[in-house]
Amino acid sequence: MATSSSDLARRAAGEMLNFIDGEFVRSADDGCFETFDPTCGQPYASVHAAGEAEVDRAVRAARDALDGPWGKLTVAERSALLFKLAARINERFEEFLVAECLDTGKPHALARHIDIPRGAANFTVFADLVRNVPTESYRMETPDGAGALNYGVRRPKGVIAVICPWNLPLLLMTWKVGPALACGNTVVVKPSEETPATATLLGEVMNEVGIPPGVYNVVNGFGAGSTGEFLTRHPQVDAITFTGETVTGTAIMQNAAVGIRDVSFELGGKNAGVVFADADFDAAVDGISRAAFANCGQVCLGTERVYVERPIFERFVEALKARAEGLKIGLPAAADTGLGPMVSSQQRDKVLGYYERARALGATVVTGGGVPDMPHEQAGGYWIEPTIWTGLAEDSPIVREEIFGPCCHLRPFDDEDEVVALANATDYGLCTTIWTQHAARAHRVAERIDVGITWVNCWFLRDLRTSFGGARQSGIGREGGVHSLEFYTELRNVCIKL
Ligand code: NAD
Ligand code: 6OD
Known about the structure:
Radius of gyration: 24 Å
CATH topology of the largest domain: Aldehyde Dehydrogenase, Chain A, domain 1
Bound molecules: nicotinamide-adenine-dinucleotide, (2E,4E)-2-amino-6-oxohexa-2,4-dienoic acid
Distance between the termini: 56 Å
CATH architecture of the largest domain: 3-Layer(aba) Sandwich
Helix content: 25-40%
Largest sheet: 7 strands, mixed
Low-confidence stretches: 1-6
Number of domains: 2
């Protein structure tokens, strides 16, 4: 059942609806689930789940929009609408910020600096790019001497299912929706059940700027046996782009196999940071500290394994410890908050489980390892201490498995060969950070570590024109710049006999 009242008013009343064909839609059977404020553990909104019928309606709306007004726009018209959309996100910046931080518990300062600006930039960058894509063309010779001309034509792939995680909800969703729409596709988004707020708010903004109904749809709910599975199994979905756990990617890929649908996967990681003794010491401590603890460690690009060249190992451990202990744990809106809570009680309990295992395995707990004391009103929140370990074997689960919490293990190394072998001893291959002032060494080591993304003397510095994605079990395919255009379009060749 559709409703036309303001989404703002509904959100104030604690309800979040699906967004289908340009309308906010209640669950047909009023099947709702609660979403929680991670700072106190209390439910703050009731989310209307999309069952099979709503998912089907959303996919059909997306298909109709492809054949309707959206499909008839020129590239320039589409691009202009996406610029308007980005401008409107910026006008409503504070609303997006508050919604994102309420859902995730992340510090306002972080969302202000990264999540919300990227929510807008993900549209402008690709709206700009699609206006400037070169077309490949080959003149060929033929026996009659007249020749033939081949040229490529890019067409939208169709209806794209976008399945998102909870750690950077707006950033990661728009990272896929931006290029998908810029290329002329339509989308059905399934936000994480933990963080539906900014995807819902974006529906309102789509209507405000005149994106035609059906181009952007949001269906809320869970994964296996629920909304996510209904969506990825739907035969009218042409391609699936997914960010989340490797094990979820495996399940989605099985559904995608039916009908031979294309997939783009950004999955888990167990990323290594490599610090050489010649690094700018303070910059390395700062970078590793951010890579380990930012967003309460809930960043796929984070560093949970840190290898430090032996001459500076002890000093580095002490400096990182001081950084961890200096992080102010607190509420999102406080200006001095460096670390918010984790997103959910399940995630917090999972990470605390690793904290216990580390202790049982004989780790040296350099700092943290538990739950901080918080004021009474926040006692039910999902708080956790930033934690540093040393002394564990490389084959321990703490060093092998993705924890996705504010923690890291440090180990000394003696030479390049050793550290390359250590960094590569994982099934994952998302990213690495290398800290050195020796340019040739940076090149050498970067070429030998088997990952999709290498940062040297920086972390999470993003140029959206560059390729982004993981090697091995960290993903399939690359997005970013022209690589996104590859995934979100079908390239056809036209051969004209002259
Ligand atoms: P998750 O895989 O549990 O869930 C992600 C999304 O998939 C959610 O919307 C969920 O409802 C849905 N889902 C779950 N099972 C499904 C199924 N069978 N069919 C369809 N949809 C299903 O991941 P998460 O816990 O939300 O996010 C954390 C994980 O995401 C970590 O492993 C992290 O490394 C990874 N991640 C990777 C990147 C990257 O760029 N490589 C970025 C962010 C997060
Ligand atoms: O910056 C990006 O485009 C991106 N996909 C970041 C992923 C972060 C993982 O948590």
